[in-house]
């Protein structure tokens, strides 16, 4: 059963991701004790306010792929020094935070 404070736990982790780093939905799920709920983490972030307090742009999928349709995400990551592969995915080897 998912606890009532699941959303708060997700946001607490997201706020800890340093500039220039990214993490994954699955890593966040693992860190809050729900390793099989990466999709729920994604759904939680999809409905969040995209603000500077909660840097949701620093969360990508396991392959480093950005959120489809959120063009600003790439720009925000570039401003923080995040680098990308030719296919447009984040260079996870260089920027993964866990």
TrEMBL record:
<feature type="domain" description="Methylated-DNA-[protein]-cysteine S-methyltransferase DNA binding">
    <location>
        <begin position="5"/>
        <end position="82"/>
    </location>
</feature>
<keyword id="KW-0227">DNA damage</keyword>
<dbReference type="Pfam" id="PF01035">
    <property type="entry name" value="DNA_binding_1"/>
</dbReference>
<dbReference type="InterPro" id="IPR036388">
    <property type="entry name" value="WH-like_DNA-bd_sf"/>
</dbReference>
<protein>
    <submittedName>
        <fullName>MGMT family protein</fullName>
    </submittedName>
</protein>
<dbReference type="InterPro" id="IPR036217">
    <property type="entry name" value="MethylDNA_cys_MeTrfase_DNAb"/>
</dbReference>
<dbReference type="InterPro" id="IPR014048">
    <property type="entry name" value="MethylDNA_cys_MeTrfase_DNA-bd"/>
</dbReference>
<dbReference type="InterPro" id="IPR052520">
    <property type="entry name" value="ATL_DNA_repair"/>
</dbReference>
